[in-house]
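Action item from last week, closing it out:
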Amino acid sequence: MFKYLPHTEGDINTMLKTIGAASIEALFEDVPPHLLNPDIRLPHAHSELELVRHFMSLAEKVDPLTPVIGAGAYDHYTPSIIRPLIERQEFLTSYTPYQPEISQGTLHYIFEFQSMITRLTGMDVANASMYDGSTATAEAMFMASAITKRKDILVSHTLHPATRSVLETYAHYKGLSIKPIAPENGVITLAALKDAISPDTACLIVQTPNIYGLIESYSGFADLLHENKSLLVINQDPATLSHLKSAGDYDADIAVGEAQTLGVPLAFGGPYIGYMATRDKYVRKMPGRICGMTKDVDGKPAFTLTLQAREQHIRRDKANSNICSNQSLLALFVTIYLSTMGQEGLIEASQQSIDGAHYLYEALLHTGLFTDPFKKPFFKEFTLETNASISDLEAHAKKAGFLAPFPLKKLGLKDNYVSFAVTEKRTQDELDALVAALGGHS
């Protein structure tokens, strides 16, 4: 299926005669020749990302600010193969595949998406219906409450404040009680959990890397929670799972997060896509739908919706969840990204992000304008403390073409905390230029 059908020579001649043009070339006479035949000076032996950067440097337009911030949305590389594929008509117009006999392609890539998420998270089963990371976390909260029949939700204060806000909103209308746990030097401790847990605790919700960019360890958390018949929910950036321990490694019960980091462009804040994975024993409490693979009457592989909680459609306010639509197009986006990058590509992209972040971290500390309030391991994002004017720092960075730093006071955190995030798209020259711009601040 194509967006257009090719015209015959007769069709073209008829159209040209109708508009009074001698040829197709005549339609472009008003376009300056240098735009029709630009000198692109194509370099040799460059990666796709380097070529894109090269062409952008030749474009006659105002350069956008280069983001060196994250706080929940990250400027990762998007392979050019993805957009032409997801913009095919049969993908753009697809809907929830209730009729498997005409939806095999859609069902197949949903199945692959689920399979990839389970492999990344180390869990047994995943769905493909989460709107974004925040609402996926709220759905995990509902799921935990339904499993345990309890109302108290322990929430780490190092969870992204926007996600905590969504949890509080959802909890209010479900009669659930949010119990925050304060961090110790930027992370949640097992001792703090022991003090907070009670017989009414349904689950603990944590995040790593957390809002400060710090890598948290949850060793022993699941044992304590399971002994109390409570659940462990881990919100995690899936792009970090090529290097960090997964929810499965920590014996968590539910894994959730924002999958925007798997190649989805920033796009002014969305749409993005969340993910959810869990253990086999909780599969019937999972919201949305699960696609499975079976065999047709001829013994050939076939795909169908294996589980779908019909109560979501008919029980309304009594349902565990009301997710009825499907993030199909973005699930396909992530599936193509992971297929294109492969295991080695995902590891390499994350390693470049780690290397760049630690390079920038050291360089910023050497300016004398920043100190590290935590001194703990981080991945691609880190938080620093400064006594300089944050608005002046932002202005200096903007003048040099950068969007940085991110003031954490915008999220209700400490006033003089700022964060930076580095992805594989940032070059050493760019990071040096940012440091020079900020270091010139007085």
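Closing note: The two ends are 60 Å apart (CA to CA).
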